TrEMBL record:
Family: Belongs to the type-II 3-dehydroquinase family.
Pfam families: DHquinase_II
Gene: aroQ
Biological processes annotated in GO: amino acid biosynthetic process; aromatic amino acid family biosynthetic process; chorismate biosynthetic process; quinate catabolic process
Species whose genome carries this gene: Sphingomonas mucosissima
Assigned EC number: 4.2.1.10
Molecular function, one GO term: 3-dehydroquinate dehydratase activity
Residues binding substrate: N85, H91, D98, L112, S113, R122
Classification via InterPro entries: DHquinase_II (IPR001874), DHquinase_II_CS (IPR018509), DHquinase_II_sf (IPR036441)
Protein name (record): 3-dehydroquinate dehydratase
Lineage: Bacteria, Pseudomonadati, Pseudomonadota, Alphaproteobacteria, Sphingomonadales
UniProt keywords, alphabetically: Amino-acid biosynthesis, Aromatic amino acid biosynthesis, Lyase
Length: 153
């Protein structure tokens, strides 16, 4: 028997982090983002997480630094994975890119819409360059598909 501490066993905790303006989901542009609110999506994720034996911690912020802090926190909490919709920061934030790179926790990039089918400025993703993988274009289902992936890590 060894008394040397081993790496923490990943918990069944999955962080679901949402970036700017996603608090408005379900109120405008339903043709692009669907009718579900962020609370609706949280409910769907919690139902599926229960079946998978996972726990969800869902958050939203309009501030870039909060997302960076929460990525660090996910690692400190030994979370199993982070599901991240960084909103428009996806296309602008080297800080979020670097935060994803700096943690061992796998990050799954999600989008409700399909950025590649939209304006040119949405085609590049700093998040995607650092994330384990990306799921986009399926509305609220993108989050549920990401949870299925996280359950298999
Ligand atoms: O499709 C996605 O999930 C996006 O991350 C959503 C971002 C957009 O900047 C990304 O290119 C793709 C925008 C979120 C804005 O959310 C709204 C919600 C309701 C009404 C208006 C905007």
């Amino acid at each position: 028997m060894s008394l040397i501490p081993t790496n923490p066993v990943p918990k069944n905790l999955v962080y679901v982090l949402n970036g700017p303006n996603l608090n408005l989901l379900g109120t405008r542009e339903p043709e692009i983002y669907g009718h579900d609110t962020l609370d609706d999506i949280a409910g769907q994720l919690e139902d599926r997480a229960r079946e998978l034996g996972l726990e969800i911690d869902m958050r939203q912020s309009n501030h870039e630094g909060h997302l960076v802090d929460w990525l660090h926190e996910a690692q400190a909490q030994a979370a199993r994975a982070v599901i991240l919709n960084a909103g428009a920061f996806t296309h602008t934030s080297i800080a979020i890119h670097d935060a994803i790179k700096s943690v061992r926790t796998p990050v799954i990039e999600v989008h409700l819409s399909s950025p590649h089918a939209r304006e040119e400025f949405r085609h590049h993703s700093y998040v995607g360059r650092a994330a384990r993988g990306t799921i986009a274009g399926f509305g609220a289902l993108s989050y549920l598909l990401a949870l299925e992936a996280a359950a298999r890590f």
